[in-house]
Structure formats: structure tokens, C-alpha cells
From TrEMBL:
Entry GO MF terms: glycerate kinase activity
Parts of the chain that traverse the membrane: none
Keywords, comma-separated and alphabetical: Kinase, Transferase
Biological processes annotated in GO: organic acid phosphorylation
Listed name of the protein: Glycerate kinase
PANTHER family: GLYCERATE KINASE (PTHR21599)
UniProt lineage: Bacteria, Bacillati, Actinomycetota, Actinomycetes, Micrococcales
Gene: glxK
Protein family membership: Belongs to the glycerate kinase type-1 family.
Length: 384
């Protein structure tokens, strides 16, 4: 490469969950690289775009790409308390992005003992209703970070459905009461929801039920005991039985149906929804191949680089979308992959932002400063 040809660098990190948004990380990496290039007299052109995998942080990434602001919405959290949440809108107002974590998320209920049997997606449904009120033609629903295992019954209730027991009484919210489900009244279901395009971003492949299902796999992190897991799994099974009898749609074995406590089950039983790998959906909206295809060097990052990073996450997607011959470097909060695994995956090198032994709290407090410092050091080495 001649000195007259600027090095094309694409900076496309995920968020460092709990510490820094993807846009902040992208800015810190950019600052480090630009400072290093100036110190070495190198000419570089930097394109910095926050990325996401369809889970938490996707709303931020998409509104950054669209150049819009989040729309505030008053709704309720997973245990019914009032909460100020958000949804995202595309620049033309036709697409809304809604995150499960915004109204049914674990962080919102971290201040109280977890209540896995009654946690509900009703507040998430209120976000969907707001999006419909705004006249959108498409909703991107991002799964991940939820505190719920209700099969999406709360969301559908917010849209007007009623879940009834054998006496015709409406069930209490949550996955536990679904064991008493006898019928579903959809006479009041919001017809607008059938007239839009639904895309559900999902980064897991778990089915709804069983040892690898929603309750068994994700229930414990939501506070479910062994007994709770069995009860929630049975409740989801009962819900699936009633939905299948009502709609003829058998979704329980579909890959990804166990994500976010089976959130897509009720929605997908009554509406046509596309369950899409989260990275693929985000990459399409952001036009990842255009951003990455012409780069000589691609810098990505996330809070923790481990084996999961290579399957359905931002790092794996970046590796797939990067142009042939491009170098890919990862900057992460921690790195647990060995050099052989990095090489086999196509990663040139990976760097932890930790300057030495440090607690998670210490790293979180100085994340952006450490990211910028690491990026400067990486750039000084790469631009030699």
C-alpha cells in the first residue's frame, strides 16, 4: 500500500453490556486509532458504526444508523410497576424497533426479589401498541434480557386477547397461571397487528419446551427454582396446546421459540412473524456488507470474547461480512479464547482492555478510557 492511499478502517463494536453503549465504544476506539495514526504520520479513513446482535443494544444501534431519537413511552415493567421505556423509529416512520429488555427486562427488576412465575410481557405489549398508534408498517422485536417466561401472553393481552380458565375467568399475569389455561378470547385483538410486517430478532436456537427449552435453559437466571422451572415448562406446554388447538399452528419445536421465555409463541400463533437470527436482521438494516466490504482493517468488540462470540453474535457476523483479505481485530473487556481458536475463526488478534488484574466494577467504571487506551496501543502496533 502506498503512502498516498489511506488505510480504510471500519470500527463496528457491540455494546459492553452494563458498561458502555456501542456508540460510545465506537467513539472511543476511533479516538484511539486517530490519535495513534497522527502520532505515526499515517493517513487513515475511519468509518465508525455501532453494531448489535438483535438483543440488548439493538435499539441504540438502529436509531444511530437511522439518525433518529428514541421515542419515550410510559409502560410497566415485568412485575407491573410504572416505568419510562423507549422504542425506536426509522427516519420515514415506517419501522419501529422494540426491545424486550426495555419493558420486560431483568435490570428493571433487579431491586426486588425475582418473581419468575408472575413476570409478564404486558408492558412490552404497551410498547407495541404505541408503535401501532404511530402508524408503523413494520415492527422489529428484539428478544434478549427478559425477566419473563410467559410465552408472550402478556404482550398479546396488551393487544386485546384474554387468557381464560375453565370458569371463564381471566388468568393472572405470568407463566405460572398458564397451567390453568382453558381458552383464549381473541375477539378484541387489535386488528392493526395483523396488517404489519413482524420480524423477531433472536440469537438462540432453543425450542420452547424440555431440557433445552425456555424454562429449563433461561429460567434459573430469572430466579426460577427447580420446582419453578418444572411449573413454568408445564405452563408453556399448556399454552402451546391451547394455541395449537385454536390456530392450527404448531410452533413449539421451531428453532428459537424458547428465546425470551417463549415470547414469540403467542404472537406467532395469531400473526405471521419471521423469527430471524438477530445479527442477520441488524446486518441487513445497517447494510453491514457495504460498511465492511471495502475495509482494509475491521475493529469490533464486545464485553466478553468467548466461545459464544463465534456463534450468532456481532463478532461472528463481522467475520462473515468482512471483505476478503481484511484484517479483523477484537477489543473486549475480557478474552477467553486461545490463539489457535482466534486464528481458526479468522481473527488476527484480540485484546482485553484490562491493564492488569481488575474487578468487573473497576473495569466498568473506566470502560471508555480503557477502550481508547487499548485502541491507541493496538493502532500503534498495527500501523508500524
Amino acid at each position: 500500500m502506498t503512502s498516498q492511499t489511506p488505510l480504510q478502517i471500519a470500527i463496528v463494536p457491540d455494546s459492553f453490556k452494563g458498561s458502555a453503549r456501542a456508540s460510545e465504544v465506537a467513539g472511543a476506539i476511533s479516538a484511539g486509532f486517530i490519535a495513534a495514526a497522527q502520532s505515526k504520520g499515517r493517513d487513515i479513513e475511519v468509518t465508525a458504526v455501532p453494531f448489535a446482535d438483535g438483543g440488548e443494544g439493538t435499539l441504540e444501534a438502529l436509531i444511530d444508523a437511522w439518525g433518529t431519537e428514541a421515542v419515550p413511552v410510559d409502560t410497566t415493567d415485568a412485575i407491573g410497576r410504572p416505568v419510562r421505556s423507549r422504542l425506536g423509529l426509522s427516519a420515514d416512520g415506517k419501522i419501529a424497533v422494540v426491545e424486550a429488555a426495555e419493558a420486560a427486562g431483568l435490570p428493571q427488576v433487579s431491586d426486588v426479589p425475582r418473581r419468575p412465575l408472575v413476570a409478564t410481557t404486558y408492558g412490552l405489549g404497551a410498547l407495541v401498541v404505541k408503535a401501532l398508534d404511530l402508524g408503523v408498517q413494520q415492527i422489529i422485536l428484539c428478544l434478549g434480557g427478559s425477566a419473563t417466561t410467559d410465552g408472550g401472553t402478556g404482550l398479546l393481552s396488551a393487544l386485546g386477547a384474554k387468557f381464560l380458565d375453565a370458569d371463564g375467568n381471566e388468568l393472572a399475569p405470568g407463566g405460572g397461571p398458564q397451567n390453568n389455561l382453558a381458552s383464549i378470547d381473541v375477539s378484541g385483538l387489535d386488528a392493526r397487528a395483523a396488517g404489519i410486517k413482524w420480524q423477531i430478532a433472536c440469537d438462540v436456537t432453543n425450542p420452547l419446551l424440555g431440557a433445552t427449552g425456555a424454562a429449563a435453559t433461561f429460567g434459573p437466571q430469572k430466579g426460577a427454582s427447580k420446582e419453578d422451572v418444572a411449573y413454568l415448562d408445564a405452563g408453556l406446554g399448556r399454552l402451546a396446546d391451547v394455541l395449537e388447538a385454536d390456530t392450527g399452528r404448531a410452533l413449539r419445536e421451531q428453532s428459537g421459540m424458547g428465546a425470551a421465555g417463549g415470547l414469540a409463541l403467542s404472537l406467532g400463533s395469531y400473526f405471521d412473524v419471521d423469527l430471524v437470527p438477530g445479527w442477520e436482521l441488524v446486518a441487513e438494516v445497517l447494510d453491514a456488507h457495504r460498511i465492511l466490504g471495502g475495509a482494509d482493517l475491521v475493529i469490533t468488540g464486545e464485553g466478553r470474547l468467548d466461545s459464544q462470540s463465534l456463534h450468532g453474535k456481532v463478532v461472528s457476523g463481522v467475520l462473515q461480512a468482512s471483505g476478503e483479505g481484511a484484517d479483523v481485530i477484537v477489543i473486549a473487556g475480557s478474552v477467553s479464547l486461545d490463539d489457535e481458536t482466534l486464528a481458526q475463526s479468522g481473527i488476527l488478534s484480540a485484546y482485553s482492555i484490562a491493564p492488569g488484574p481488575a474487578t468487573l466494577a473497576e473495569l466498568s467504571a473506566d470502560t471508555l478510557k480503557l477502550v481508547e487506551r487499548t485502541a491507541f496501543s493496538v493502532a500503534r502496533t498495527y500501523l508500524r
